[in-house]
Amino acid sequence: MFEFATDDERGQVGIGTLIVFIAMVLVAAIAAGVLINTAGFLQTQAEATGEESTSQVSDRVQIVSQSGNVTDSQEVDKLQIILAKAPGAGNIDLNETSVELIGSGGQETFSVGDEGNASIDMFAGTSDAVLIDNSDRAELEITLSTDIDYPVLQPGDRLSVTFTTASGATTTTEIRVPTTLTDEQSSVRL
């Protein structure tokens, strides 16, 4: 029923088992190396995606106030918008920010940094058009129908203004011109 192996046969079985064991360890080590390499690549890619997503959400401007210049013919020909950086946002270069106007006069998209589209006046911080600190404020003045190809606003007009920063974060505000403008008004809060 039981067979007994001689000493020669036992040695050969042990060496064969050792060779198979070493081969399995090598295969497992190669597979582990591939898995670790893939995991490192995926982690790096996930971190980059997370940083870009965070920037698209948090690196946006905040609108502090908005007003308009009233002409003698009771029209609004200039928009003055005071901007700050939103809480949690990084540095925002206003020269790389685009503005989109949508209203009854059509749609117009332009970059703030392009010559002649808008003027930027920094109240605090650097002389560059970069919002660095939460206390920094910038006045963006847009002259309608002169700087950009968008008609002046009439009483009762509505205008949607969307700011998109370089990271892709957007801020939208609604501008509503009062239905009645008088000769005594030189500016109006929108």
From TrEMBL:
The name this protein goes by in its record: Flagellin
Give this protein's Gene Ontology molecular function annotations. Answer: structural molecule activity
Query: Under the cellular component aspect of Gene Ontology, which terms does the record hold?
Result: archaeal-type flagellum
Please state the protein's primary subcellular location.
Answer: other
Q: Does the keyword Nucleotidyltransferase apply?
A: no
Q: Where in the cell is it found?
A: Archaeal flagellum
The UniProt entry, under Pfam families, shows:
Flagellin_arch-type
Q: Write down the InterPro entries for this protein, in alphabetical order.
A: Flagellin/pilin_N_arc (IPR013373), Flagellin_arc-type (IPR002774)
- BP terms from Gene Ontology: archaeal or bacterial-type flagellum-dependent cell motility
Give UniProt keywords alphabetically.
Archaeal flagellum, Cell projection, Cilium, Flagellum, Membrane, Transmembrane, Transmembrane helix
Sequence similarity: Belongs to the archaeal flagellin family.
Q: Where are the transmembrane segments?
A: 12-36
Q: Please, which domain of life does this record's source organism belong to? A: Archaea
Q: What does this protein do?
A: Flagellin is the subunit protein which polymerizes to form the filaments of archaeal flagella.
